[in-house]
Write a structure and sequence with these properties.
This protein has 14 helices and 24 strands. The chain has helices at 3-9, 33-45, 59-70, 106-117, 129-133, 137-145, 181-191, 209-216, 252-264, 283-290, 335-343, 364-374, 405-417, 437-444; strands spanning 15-18, 24-27, 49-53, 74-79, 82-86, 100-101, 122-126, 149-154, 158-164, 173-175, 197-202, 221-226, 230-236, 246-247, 269-276, 294-303, 306-314, 322-323, 348-351, 378-382, 385-389, 398-399, 422-424, 447-448.
């Protein structure tokens, strides 16, 4: 049985969160998941030793590490968070003998499709039950324009699928249909091995970790504004990628859970260390501050080409706000925990334009609304908008996570501030992004059983 299948059949482990006293202390969340995936992938494509410090050792990232090994890299773990990758080099990847099994890793699988598409190899991609439901066509369509071919696929362009890459990927100019760092990154990673210039145009700018890491490893890449909110990214093909050290900053998506917990649990005062503050990832921070959150950014600095800071968060009386649709790309993973903050805010919070949440690990929009309702929160979905009326979170609910780690952590946070305990049906998948979640939260004073 594959590891993905084993995970899919693992017994569920329910977890309860109970009303807690003030959360206090300091913590550093795990390394950023997006940067961790990319550090490994660029290590694979570069020549020499790429040293990575602070790598997230969640299940998703470990799947990407294994895929890099299967494609010809030597990948070694020295100690917690400290890894080395000796790359095969751009254009020199090995054909994998076994299936590239990505478990639950949507980012890892989609980025690696871009890598494979730009090389004359054939690879079979698969994942767990959740990943098999997620659409891949939006990635495969532009890769086909670049010369890759899908030899086999499940219905609707889903996993498992077999992808044949191109020995001479075509330079393309591609306009992404939605704001998606995964689509953009796959096109750029394929374009790396193209003999010309690859251009990606986004009407709404998505997170830019791939562009930053391309530059960090020596590629010639230019990014300029496009329209009101977009970017135009141009990459010169076939650079000599040189191995570089990468220090992975703390993941803002993981930091979001203790951050919101401190805001809603009375008397709390915590510091979250070394969190990435990339403007294209800070939509949640902006929104919480608009709601009246007491959050201070201290000790601002740069790590691994990314802006970071320590975040001090204190209990706050929040108020509902209207969150514009154009903010969605900068906080797409944070809507579940924002909905929890909104449940404790005074008045109504409307989150607009959340269609992208329907194609995450679960139909995340429906999962959020269902979890809120069973815990006594008044909410509704109108079109692609989620409306939460705050001040009504009583807890007492049993939440179906649908194998979604962010749903699980969000509703555990809700339980820390509710009168009645909140139970999530399974905590095992939290390990995909935040293996130390329970231990770090308990150290701050959170109560779980």
């Amino acid at each position: 049985m594959s590891p993905a299948a084993a995970h899919a059949h693992a017994p569920a482990a329910p977890l309860s969160a109970h009303k807690s006293g003030p959360l206090t202390g300091r913590l550093r969340p795990p390394g950023d998941k997006s940067v961790s995936h990319r550090a490994l992938i660029f290590g694979l494509l570069a020549v020499g030793e790429t040293k990575i410090e602070g790598l997230l050792e969640g299940e998703d990232v470990l799947r990407t590490a294994q895929a890099c090994r299967q494609l010809g890299a030597r990948v070694v773990r020295h100690s917690p968070g400290n890894w080395s990758v000796w790359g095969a080099g751009l254009g020199s990847l090995l054909q994998p003998v076994e299936t590239l099994d990505f478990g639950n890793a949507g980012t890892g699988s989609r980025l690696m499709m871009g890598v494979v598409a730009g090389h004359p190899i054939v690879a079979r991609f698969d994942g767990d039950a959740s990943l098999r439901k997620r659409p891949m066509k939006r990635i495969l369509d532009p890769l086909a324009l670049q010369g890759a071919q899908v030899l086999e696929e499940a219905e609707g362009g889903r996993l498992p699928l077999v992808l044949q890459g191109s020995s001479e990927p075509l330079p393309v100019e591609y306009k992404t249909p939605v704001a998606s760092a995964q689509i953009k990154s796959a096109v750029l990673l394929c374009g790396l091995n193209s003999p010309g210039r690859t251009i990606v145009i986004e009407a709404e700018a998505s997170r830019d970790h791939t562009e930053k890491m391309l530059a960090h490893f020596g590629a010639t890449v230019a990014s300029e504004p496009y329209g009101a909110h977009g970017r135009k990214i141009a990459l010169e093909g076939r650079p000599e990628l040189i191995a570089r050290a990468v220090r992975v900053p703390a993941d803002p998506s993981s930091a979001a859970f203790p951050l919101v917990a401190a805001l809603i649990v009375e008397g709390s005062d915590i510091v979250i260390e070394g969190v990435m503050t990339n403007p294209l990832r800070s939509g949640l921070l902006t929104t919480l501050q608009e709601m009246g959150a007491d959050i201070a950014l201290e000790n601002r600095r740069e790590e691994g080409g990314e802006e970071v800071a320590d975040m001090r968060a204190r209990f706050s009386r929040l108020s509902g706000v209207d969150v514009p649709a154009e903010r969605a790309p900068s906080m797409i993973d944070e809507y579940p925990i924002l909905a929890v903050a909104a449940a404790f805010a005074k008045g109504e919070t409307r989150m607009r334009g959340l269609s992208e949440l329907r194609v995450k690990e679960s139909d995340r929009l429906e999962a959020i609304a269902a979890g809120l309702r069973v815990n006594g929160v008044d909410c509704e979905i109108i079109g692609d908008d989620l409306i939460v009326r705050g001040g009504s979170a009583k807890g007492g609910g049993f939440v179906e996570t649908h194998l979604d780690h962010r749903i699980a952590m969000s509703f555990l946070v809700l339980g820390l501030a509710s009168e009645n305990k909140v139970v999530v049906d399974d905590e095992t998948m939290i390990a995909t992004s935040f293996p130390s979640f329970r231990a770090l939260m308990e150290r701050l004073g959170a109560r779980f059983s």
